[in-house]
Amino acid sequence: FAGAAAALEERAQTFQDLRAKKLAVDLLEACTNCDVLKATELIDSGAPLDFSDEVGRTPLMYAAQESSDAIVTLLLGRGMALDAQMDVGATALMLALKSKATDCVQILLDAKADVDVCTPEGWTALMIAAQMNSEEHLRQLVAVNASLDFQEEVK
Question: Which of 99, 77, 75, 95 is nearest to 86 (CA)?
């Protein structure tokens, strides 16, 4: 009986792992589609908030990149990690800046996103805002004391 019980327990764990992965993938899709109702339903059903795709992009990053203020607010309210970095070092704040998602940028800043996080190449949120020629975003970042010191490229 011990062997059968162990095999059954292993199958149950595999099922739970597959279910969690399906919920997580569906959550990424809901974030991409700016579907706040679906995102809420998935989170309430147990979608893991610590999930990221193959390049390290989290649900918060997807929502910020798609300018979905409601989903960004939802995810932050549910405890989503604010300053997680993708494999290339980008954060949700950096993706919101690149997408010119002014409201998402402000929501992330109000949540105390770290404005001085650097990518491995030394890019900060302020540098991205400058590259995008976004005076409004530069003002937002300076208002929260973003460092004006530029980093040397990380070797």
Answer: 95
Q: What angle do CA 70, 72, 77 make, to 5 degrees?
A: 95
Give dist(CA 117, CA 127) in Å, integer.
11
For residue 101, count other CB atoms closer than 10 A to its CB: 24
pLDDT of residue 154: 44
Count other Cβ atoms within 10 Å, centred on residue 90.
24
How far apart CA 72 and CA 92 sit, in angstroms, is 9
User: 20 burial class (0-12, 13-18, 19+ CB within 10 angstroms)?
Assistant: middle
Could you read off the pLDDT of 66-114 as tens digits, one per residue? 999 999 999 999 999 999 999 999 999 999 999 999 999 999 999 999 9
HEC assignment per residue over 109-121? HHCCCCCCCCCCC
CA 34 to chain centre: 14
Looking at every residue in the chain, the average pLDDT score rounds to 90
Write out pLDDT tens, residues 36-47: 999 999 999 999
